[in-house]
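Re: export button greyed out
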Amino acid sequence: MMCVGAMALATAALADYTDGKVCGWMRIDSTLPVTAVGVPWVDVGNTNSNVKVADLVKTDGLTDGDNLYVFNNGTWTFYTLDSGAWVAGTTANSSITATAGTPGTATIARGQALYLERSSYSQPFYVYGAVGSALTSTTLTGATKYLVASPKATAFTPTTSNISGATPKSRTAAGDQIVVPLTGGATRTYTLAGGKWGYATSTGRVTQDDTANYQPVPLGTGFWYVTSSSENSITITW
Amino acid sequence: MNMTQKLLATLAVAASAIIGSADTLYWQVAGENAGDTFDSATLYAKNGSTSELTVLGTATTANGLLFNDGDGTYSDVMQYDGIEAFSGSDPAYTFFVEMANYSVGGSGTPATKQGYAYSYTELVSAGYIATNPFDSSAATAAAAAGNMGSSTPEPTSGMLLLIGGSLLALRRRRRQA
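Workaround output, generated via the alternate export path:
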């Protein structure tokens, strides 16, 4: 396939990836041993087909034994880097129960995310694929926990305008929550309360109305969406 | 494996998971009964040697972290990153929530109400401290379960504990997803 290479720094503000003839690399500036990575690309050479898990994360700079983990409806599947290629997982991190994936066929859709576990993590890494047609929204149903990410080249800001179907927090229910692993190893938990999405800080709650201080989900970062029932249907407009 | 052995095993797993990130303590507070109200909820760490109190977080109406939708007062999901700083045994810390002007049914005589004092071990064992680098949402699940918590600490149950009208909801991250 003829394509035009495009390098996109994870921190750069770029237009959405919508040109169908462009391949892309996105640099993920993580220095964490375990990083949640968003999937912005489709498969190279197969227009708008989901990218193969084994193709998404470039192996350059990684170490044999590093693992990729895909979460789907409560189940983890994993892959291990062996001699520079992603193969079926061999030894998973003891924190989770994961089964070996099939790197030849397994794919992952834009709007989802996966985890990369590295033994050497001082340097950035890259995700790779082809640009697809615009993905405007993702609907979550059939599970209570989802690992997702914005497919766009812009940071995602949780608001009542771009998330529908969410259950608000109440005295007797935790409500829907968005949990974001941050670069420094901390997390940020967004909740829907008082008719607004927001999160707690040491000085108080920051809500979507406080546009000067309300922080989005960082570009390229996967996050957890947690809801109370698998029957709930949540639509996220990217 | 007896209870002590279970707790020690849990702590060993948690300690080995901290590479590269801070452990997070998650908590939230809700009125014990419909209509119960309070003005603030503060999470303290108490030094076992000196009894000195360290404030780990406060939710108030003024800072936007307390809500009341007519069913009573409740807090946002609160978190404290770096809770491992309080994990030592010398001194050993305990953790509790104190609510100011707690009013039963919203009309009773306001009084200060203090929740159960947890040890660090109990927090870890109950799944309130996040140590699993893969699943940042585990604490969220704990928070949901906590709304149905019991009035008696149950360190190995993984449930939240509803003590004296306060709900302390936390998780640990080293638990399997």
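Chain A has two domains: 4-130, 137-237. The button fix ships in the next patch.
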